[in-house]
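Wait, mind explaining this?

_____
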Amino acid sequence: MSKEIKIKKIAIGGGNRIAVQSMTNTDTLDADATLEQLKRLESAGCDIARIAVSSSAEIESCKKIVGKTSMPLVADIQFDYRLAVAACEIGFDKIRFNPGNIGSETNVKRVVDACKAHNVPIRVGVNTGSLEKEFKALPASSALVESALKHVKLLEKYGFCDTVISVKSSDVKTTVDAYRLLSEKVDYPLHIGVTESGSDLRGTVRSAIGIGSLLVDGIGDTVRVSLSGDPVKEIEAARLILQECGVDKNYCEIISCPTCSRCKYDLKSIVDELKEATNDITTHVKLAVMGCVVNGPGEAEDADFGVAGGGSDKVALFVHGKVIKTITQAEIVPELLRLVHDKIGSETK
């Protein structure tokens, strides 16, 4: 298990809940637009957000942003150590940088001193685009890990251990191999994700394979799904990945069969209506919407409640695989929702 590190109010590592991260893509100089996007991210379920800080003018703009949201904010620094120091001073909750891009060890020490003074953790972020020449001959996954370890040891040299590590690639296998290797060598919290994964469906699938593979191995303390476009979609995708990996169980899970000619009712519309009606549920309940009674109740016996199509207008309503009665199609959603809310109510008494 990784050790625990605090980022403002959020504890990561140490067996704590996996935090979902994202990054603003508004102009940092536009404080109003950036703050509006941060609030949208927070409303969508983002736990920690990162802002690119590339100039002293952007530091000034961030003074209007930092502290305006309860969500911890991370300053993303690329080359200028002075910006990292300034970010600590104006109240950022975490700094993300690659020590190899900051310059001399003296510059790294200045950042470390500032982070110590303001109790600000550091994420050492390494990706395949920032590897040092000395590691280029190694396999990509090993090169990522060796580069990260080099930078972590530099921080440790100056007495800094409040560190989070990421080793990302746009290649799924390289990313997964790197994190698996790294997790065997350190107990620092790991921020996981597939970088530059793309947009929409392909980017989501690529991220789901990479992040999901690590999560089922028990690797990862914070996650980011890197998608081109509106970052709110990153949060939606990340939450689904956490749910489908069994990491986040605080939701209403709905399973449904792909249907065949035995299905005699509009299963898809029922599923859509149930999803909409249960979107705000934060207790784990499992529903099953099955096409027919041939295999439906048996295949979905682990579901709390479910229905399976019968003949004409009728469907079988079942509880943990046992049929309790027959209802009409119009009664499906009301009956399932009644059972869900009764279960939640009984568990909260």
